[in-house]
Amino acid sequence: MALVGNLKDIKLANLVQLNCMEHNTAKLTIENNGKYGFIYFEKGQVVHAEYDPFIGEDAFFRLLQLLSGNFKVESGIRAPAKTISTNWNNLLLEGLHRIDDEDQEAGRNYSRLFERLYTIRGVKRIFVIDEEGRVLARSAEDIPDVHPALALAHYEAGKIGETIHLKAPQFVSLNLGKVNIILIRQKENALVLEVEKKTRLDLILPLLKKALSPQLP
Question: Is the pTM of this model over 0.70?
Answer without folding.
Answer: no
